[in-house]
Amino acid sequence: MNREKARERAVELVSQMTLEEKASQLKYDAPGIPRLHIPAYNWWNEALHGVARAGVATSFPQAIGLAATFDEALLGEVADTIAEEGRAKYNAYAAHNDRDIYKGLTFWSPNVNIFRDPRWGRGQETYGEDPFLSGRLGSAFVKGLQGSGEVMKAAACAKHFAVHSGPEAVRHEFNAEVSNKDLYETYLPAFEELVKEAKVEAVMGAYNRTNGEPCCGSETLIQDILRTDWRFQGHYVSDCWAIRDFHENHMVTRDAKESAAMALNAGCDLNCGNTYLHIMNAYKHGLVTEEKITEAAVRLYTTRYLLGLFEETEYDKIPYEVVECKEHLALSERAARESIVLLKNDGILPLKKNGRNNQEGTSIHTIGVIGPNANSRAALIGNYHGTSSEYITVLEGIQRYVGDEIRVLYSEGSQLKVDKTENLAMENDRLSEAKIVAENSDVVLLVVGLDEFLEGEEGDEGNHYASGDKEDLQLPATQRRLMEAVVDTGKPTILCLMAGSDIDLSYAREHFNAILQLWYPGARGGKVAAEVLFGETSPSGKLCITFYEGTEGLPDFEDYSMEGRTYRYIKNKAQYPFGYGLTYGKVMVKNAVLTEMESTEAVKYEIVAAVKNEGKTDTQDVVQVYVKDMDSSFAPLHPRLCGFKRVTVKAGEEQEIRITLDKHAFTVIEESGKRIKDGSHFALFVGCSQPDERSVELTGIRPVCVEVNI
Question: What SS3 state is found at 506?
Fold first, then answer.
């Protein structure tokens, strides 16, 4: 059903409702209307990396890990799988007349906010710090979730619109002040792509104000940009209880009825919260019109018709058995495999189960697995997660992989943050055990990091540490002491980091033989981690965020200017740069040329590159294209990503690849926020990393430079 037909049917159905009934449908927990044979519907569902909070579902890596794959096709497959399981669960729940929260087909995902500051706890939910990458991956996710059939498979939602990325503690009252240049260059492009290219069905407003206007009641964001400039046709939903913030925290209205009126008049159709209970009161006081209430209801019912909720559809027969089926689990493992980033390797990896340790030349008889995240389920899943029928931690993954051939010793070593594991014990009560395990091992896997209770969302149960944000980039002191204790044993050690954000790895870089960034790899992520450690597959993920050398060079957390932030504007040398990640092979771009593609639209360009694996191991890698406008004063400080492609290259093999460039590759955003072409001389850099000196230092490979005049 196309949108025009769906809207016609929505108009017809809504016209049969009383004004009170229309108003009742604008809350996330919309009641049924029996006389019109309309069942209750709960709009609130989550699916960042699997169907969340509604029981068992396939668990994929957290969104930040999915972003590290740099794999659009994979994101589309993951989202299609989520929609498949969402439909299966909806069908089963509906058959039991279960219309509860988290059981509908309107998923409030993906989160395409820009991870502008490494202290932000919710950055793990995003696709990283780059607007282009976020737009491409987010668009693939939306298309996969919504499908291309006659009926929409599930409805996606781009959140949180707009200019939102912490601090969490003040998000209900915070005013994010942003220039037009930063707004249109950094904070809006991903949303624009999801609206224009992916046709996302919903957009969710943020809690904060942007330049003085609360985002869920902003005429500028909702009416001027979203609906007028971008011609968005779907529905707009508030973040949860964000409209209440208008009068309780932002102080831009006096009471609930004024807040409800402000949001509805601005174009917010659906209220996650209860402030729209006051819509009828606002109507009686002349603050809103019946036309506004009707239009919001029509938009919402248009979505329900597009989902086929009032008729039989091709998706009604999706059986419950698809939930966590072997094909879906295999896809989750593939996603985890592609997400893991190898940050350092002095030759110790891959480990050999049958043979000699590459680094020390001695056989491995005993592996020590140490650390608070080594056997942690929470460290597998991140936030906004579902339930898995099986969890495989890193410890369990290693144990299963080596079987009886190698002895595995284990020590928790420390808690994530508190200084003891047993209440009656002395501080650091597991530290001596960690040393003993290391001393009795041939090689050590040290698994540290965070979980959703140390980085996440303000208000989440148990998440009281800086309201989910990080105060700095250091691991908690307990884990730093554990790292030092293991180093003191002198045993070869591989650090495995499980976290959804940048952690200062300066100590680890100097003292450990290898570093693997595992992110939050999904419920069975430990199985994949073991396979990567032992060389069953080569790591091939890339950092979708910058790892900084501490926070000293960063602007204030509340400063939304991009100066000094992300790889495009960083002023100091990165610890580990955006786009960086090693493999067990050695993939290089040998040469590249820019060509024009045949197109009925505007001129399109692509890079044709020769790629060779000069290593001895088959591997996947990500070829990246960065562009620098050599003439314009409006260009970012450093070259920016404008194309990428994941490739599989066998050892010794050379192949030709083609990468289509972003349609905006040769334009810039000037100070007023307008996109212009401001020069004709460009440098394109094609390689498996950024062209920055730090990436060259770490990889030993310099991307190919192609200078063009356009």
Answer: helix
